[in-house]
Write a structure and sequence with these properties.
7 helices, 3 strands, 5% strand
Length: 224
Amino acid sequence: MFLDPIYFLFAAPGLLLAFWASMKTKSTFRKYAKVAARSGLTGAEAAQQMLRYAGVNDVRIEPVQGFLSDHYDPRANVLRLSPEVYQSSSLSAIGVACHEAGHALQKAHQYGPLALRSMLVPVTSFGSSLAMPVFFIGMLVQVPFLVQIGIWMFVAVVAFSIVTLPVEWDASARAKQYMVRAGIVTDAEQVHAGRVLNAAFLTYVAAAVQAILTLMYLMLRARD
């Protein structure tokens, strides 16, 4: 695959978009990491206040290592925040923390796409690691059945990346709404915190584009 020039024609747009989105997210986060919120709340406190305001009181909030490793685990109902977010009172930290709290609200409100994404996690984890080997082994030994299995495994990866888009967008929308209502930030501050979330969303768009283009490449190769 990596020696196939046709692959690079498909992969290049997604790789370039992913690189730009990653740089955009990091630069935007670092920019507003220098701007403290007037409330003085840390990311952990902001997430807790947002959840409490929304009437959700059963979510545990804990620190986790890694830069921008923030995530919500719906199975354990735990919101895990990186050090840069958990203990900082910057607009970047509050934006990210409230975004993750938005996922907790999705679960509490039984948001359909989140449940669907959770269902796809085990299938996607399996498919993302085995799809390519199965596909190219099938191509090498000329077994169409294996080729098709590889493609369908990767279809699950594409489905996951597409379902992720509304999940992430909705979580950010909830964060932007509730962080003001709960008195965490002012209207003006919300605009800046929202820019961090908008930049982060681009990384999910890039992942979806990469997955779709890779699937198109696999389908093209399968016709050879």
